[in-house]
Structures are given as structure tokens and as C-alpha cells.
Design a protein that fits this description.
single chain, 170 residues, alpha/beta, Rossmann fold, 5-stranded parallel β-sheet, 52% helix, 14% strand
């Protein structure tokens, strides 16, 4: 199975993805560390490293799926093309794709989390609240079925809900 996380920066998707990965023994492929590695390797930030990071994440996820294992992709997935990328990958491997969107219904909590986080990704710049607000306006409407989790709810409850959702699909 391919599990594609989605949601705005700071909404809590990485926390849920990591907890799901631990509970299900599925590797988590995260776009942000891939992009940061590109910058550390000397690829200019002016280059389309975000797009390239999605392509690298797809290649890594494809390798995991080829082994017959479930993989979790941790990315914003704000645009239709990104979501289509994961559907296409799952189709090529004959596995279901399950989207999990993480939202934070309390903008004060969301902003506090975003501005207070430090993910220890060497060379990665944390996004600003203003950038998140711009991205919110650009976030494409969903056509795919998905589970929506609100990160103001306890992490363990969200993970349990996600595991139930994934079990029902398999």
C-alpha cells in the first residue's frame, strides 16, 4: 500500500506519518529532508528542488513498493499533479493509494507549532506563517477519497484512527 500524507506545513503530518511508520513498520519517505540534501549537495535553491524532491521521493517509494512493502510518503501534496503522481505510482505497482490529509483546525495552535518547531533538518529553512497562508489559498480542492485528521486531537487517537482507516482498505 502507498500511504500519501498531505497538509500544510506545521499541520502535524510528519508527526502522524512517523507514528504510523513506527506502528506499522512502514518506511517514511519525507520530501523536506530530500530537498535539504539537494541544497547541501550544492544544488541552488533557485532550481526547482521542490519538484525534484518529489521525483526522488517517488523513486525511493517505488523501490520500497517493488519489495512488496507498504510505504508512507510525507509531503504537502497541495496540488493535483502531486496527488496524481502518487496515484500513478500505486497503479504501476498494483497497490492501493490511501491519502491522509492532516489539518490543524485551530489557527493559533497551528501558527504556534509552525513558529516553534525545529526539525533538525540540516540546511532546511522553516517556512513562515505568511508562506503557509499563501499555500492555504493555493491548496487544490480534493477529488480523491481521503481520511482527514485534525492535529488538535491527541496524536495517539489520530494514529489509531489512521490505522483503522488503513486496515479497512486492505
Amino acid at each position: 500500500m502507498l500511504i500519501a500524507m498531505a497538509g500544510l506545513p506545521g499541520a502535524g503530518k510528519s508527526s502522524i506519518a512517523e507514528a504510523l511508520g513506527r506502528k506499522s513498520a512502514a518506511p517514511v519517505v519525507s520530501v523536506d529532508p530530500i530537498e535539504a540534501a539537494m541544497w547541501r549537495a550544492g544544488v541552488a535553491r533557485s532550481q526547482p528542488t521542490g519538484l525534484a524532491a518529489y521525483a526522488v521521493a517517488e523513486a525511493v517509494a517505488a523501490g520500497v513498493l517493488a519489495l512488496g512493502q507498504t510505504v508512507i510518503v510525507d509531503a504537502v501534496n497541495a496540488v493535483v499533479e502531486a496527488r496524481g503522481q502518487w496515484r500513478s505510482l500505486a497503479d504501476r505497482h498494483g497497490v492501493p493509494v490511501m491519502f491522509i490529509e492532516v489539518v490543524c483546525s485551530d489557527p493559533v495552535v497551528h501558527r504556534r507549532r509552525l513558529e516553534g518547531r525545529s526539525r533538525d533538518i540540516e540546511g532546511f529553512y522553516e517556512v513562515t506563517w505568511e508562506a503557509v497562508e499563501r499555500r492555504r489559498e493555493e491548496f487544490a480542492a480534493w477529488a480523491d477519497d481521503r481520511l482527514v485528521l485534525d492535529s488538535v486531537i491527541d496524536l495517539s487517537l489520530n494514529v489509531a484512527t489512521a490505522l483503522e482507516f488503513l486496515a479497512a482498505a486492505s
